[in-house]
Amino acid sequence: MALSLQADTVTAAVLIIGDEILSGRTQDQNGNYIARYLAAVGIELLEIRVVPDIEDEIVAAVDALRHRYTYVFTTGGIGSTHDDITADAMGRALGVEVLEDPRAIAMLLERLRPDQLNDARRRMARIPKGAELIENSVSKAPGFMIGNVIVMAGIPMVMQAMLDAVAPRLKCGARVLVETVAAGAIPEGRYSEGLAAIAAAEPEVSIGSYPQFSSEGVRNEIVLRARDAARLAAAAHSVRGLLAELSSDRALG
Amino acid sequence: MALSLQADTVTAAVLIIGDEILSGRTQDQNGNYIARYLAAVGIELLEIRVVPDIEDEIVAAVDALRHRYTYVFTTGGIGSTHDDITADAMGRALGVEVLEDPRAIAMLLERLRPDQLNDARRRMARIPKGAELIENSVSKAPGFMIGNVIVMAGIPMVMQAMLDAVAPRLKCGARVLVETVAAGAIPEGRYSEGLAAIAAAEPEVSIGSYPQFSSEGVRNEIVLRARDAARLAAAAHSVRGLLAELSSDRALG
Q1: What is the rounded average pLDDT of the residues A34-61?
Q2: Which terminus of chain A faces fewer neighbouring Cβ atoms within 10 Å, N or C?
Q3: Gap between the Cα atoms of B49 and B41, Å rounded
């Protein structure tokens, strides 16, 4: 059950642009990294989408997301090759021109000699008009932020550097507190009813149950999330009480 | 650049239902597994979405996706706890009742004694009317297929068993052939222009360039995808020729 949003909740979506994720060639790591990062700074991630390297699809997705969430974080498609079309897609989505940006050229020249700055590499300096640049301490070619859309590289090491660079400019909300209670081998089906009662009694606490199957059988975890520490502690106490009661009464199966 | 679709292309989206992915607690594995599986059977995966455990969000996403793609594969939210709301969401999205299904009860009783079948466990037998069940060889509680929507568990081992069970019932298309050419340490910015020319000359071949940063520096790979083996081979030959030419001319940087 998702946590209810408050008026001051800062929300986000992640838009992953990349055929290589959809073909299965690459296991995306950026979504999970950004999810953990945003949780740590008090931004609630409410959606992730993966779309192919097709301009119409990117434009449609960024348009759907930027009107719904405080921020949209995109990854992928800002390199120098013909399949890097994110900057143009963002320009189209936001209705602004995409031009070679002298600030971005200056950044590229920190790493390249002037004679190495060919047309393909100049593509990495094409930035929608009005965007703020996001520094890239790894390989210099910048990301950018335009409106509430934060455009980052797909390579995890570069994306992570850009996220560090842009994070201080973002508004953040109250951090969600998390507590995990191990239910061990007690079957979900035995504690479901008691857990539902606790969840109903604690509407400000989001409670989820996560079974893991392994060669040793099922091991369950109950994860509680809340913005209020006292409510979180009370709900976790109730969950521990429920599990203790069930543990002392194993014969029921 | 994504592969152009043909009239007989079978397409799909994956809808991942789960707060635990959006909070960053869990790194999703199902999206990548399904992506590789679908590629192997000739179904083109065109979108992945991750949404929270909120009924309205699930209904909106499945509605958007089921009208666009041949199939929608969902994962998550079909267990016995209060946060498992996928069956109800699917019933609402498809406008059918969700009822306890005697076939699903029979499956649960393969693993549980009748006295263990409490109300919470009976929830796992609630299936939208008209759905076909999908067998679960791991833990018995079934998934289901209703219309073009395939509803599976979130636990990877269970999801994988369900995918094996449902795959023979799906229509499949021509498998996409893939060839990877290692570009090694040749910088992307040096081959971008040549690669764009090859991509333009081979419109039936999708060509992507994927840099990897590591402690040893950048290593690039060029991935070619096509349905036609001859066109794929021709394009890969051109790419190898381009790289060989650049390798013999390293001084330009």
Answers
A1: 97
A2: C
A3: 21
DSSP annotation string for B76-87: S--SSSTT--HH
Please give the C-alpha separations between residue A140 and each of A108, A128, A166, in angstroms, as whole numbers.
6, 18, 14
Question: Which residues, in sequence order, are CB contacts of A126 under 8 Å at separation 6+?
Answer: A87, A88, A98, A99, A100, A101, A104
Rg (CA), chain A: 23
Other CB atoms within a 10 A radius of the CB of residue B126 amount to: 17
Q: Domain B177-252 carries which CATH code?
A: 3.30.70.360
Nearest CB among A81, A208, A225 relative to B192 is that of: A81
Mean pLDDT of A219-232: 95
User: What are the backbone angles phi and psi of residue B113, rounded to the nearest 5°?
Assistant: -75, 155
Listed in order, the ranges of chain B carrying CATH 3.40.980.10 are 11-169
ipTM of the modeled complex? 0.92
Q: Which residue of A has its CA nearest to B21?
A: A32
Q: Inform me whether the pLDDT recorded for A252 exceeds 80.
A: no
CATH 3.30.70.360 placement within chain B: 177-252
Length of chain A: 253
**Can you give the pTM of this predicted structure?**
0.93
Whether domain B11-169 has CATH 1.10.3720.10: the reply is no
Residues A221-243, mean pLDDT to the nearest whole number? 96
Q: Mean per-residue pLDDT for A58-83?
A: 96
In this structure, which amino acid lies at residue B105? I
CA distance A208 to B119: 18
CB atoms B120 and A225 under 8 Å: no
On average, the pLDDT of chain A sits at 94
| 3-class secondary-structure state, position B114 | helix
Instruction: Specify the pLDDT at position A1.
Output: 61
Which of A69, A68, A70, A78 minimizes the C-alpha distance to A16? A78
Chain A positions touching B81 (Cβ under 8 A) are 188, 192, 195-196, 208-209
Q: How would you classify the pairing of strands B71-75 and B149-152? A: parallel
Nearest to B138 among A176, A212, A213 (CB): A213
pLDDT of residue A8: 82
End-to-end CA distance of chain A: give it in Å, rounded: 26
Q: How far apart are CA B140 and CA B15, in angstroms?
A: 22
Structure tokens at A45: 């991630």
* Beta-carbon separation of B48 and A22 below 8 A: yes
Using pLDDT thresholds of 50, 70 and 90, give the confidence band for residue A5: confident
Write the DSSP symbol of residue A111: T
Per-run averaged pLDDT (10 residues), chain B, 253 residues = 76 97 96 97 97 97 98 96 95 97 97 93 96 96 98 96 97 92 92 95 95 80 95 97 87 50
